[in-house]
Amino acid sequence: MPDVHAKVPAPHASHSAGFDAALDEALRNASILGKPDHYTVAVEFWAEIEVTNPGQIQQYGVTLSPRS
Questions:
Q1: For residue 59, what are the domain limits?
Q2: Which of 1, 23, 32, 44 could form a disulfide with 63 if both were Cys (CB 3.0 to 4.6 A apart)?
Q3: What domain count does the chain have?
Q4: 14 to 11, 19, 49, 51, 60: CA distances (angstroms)
């Protein structure tokens, strides 16, 4: 399975809801790209932010990377 990326726009009710939505999208993308099987993956959560006072998250993101 190749790396799978997903990002969803903010705002969400909470940061955890934004990251949950991005993870759900990444898992949907993985089911389209990968063949059915069991995979061990590393899950990386990230955000695109706008630096202001206070800073704001613009998009929540998740990357799934294969691990052996």
A1: 4-66
A2: 44
A3: 1
A4: 8, 9, 15, 19, 11
Torsion of CA 12, 14, 16, 18, to 10 degrees: 10
Question: What does the angle CA 14 – CA 67 – CA 58 come to, to the nearest 5 degrees?
Answer: 25
Tokens of 13: 């009710």
Q: Count CB neighbours of 67 within 10 A.
A: 9
Query: Alpha helix locations (H) across the chain?
Result: 15-33
3-state secondary structure of 43: strand
Beta strands in the chain (DSSP E): 4-9, 41-50, 56-66
CB 24 within 8 A of CB 43: no
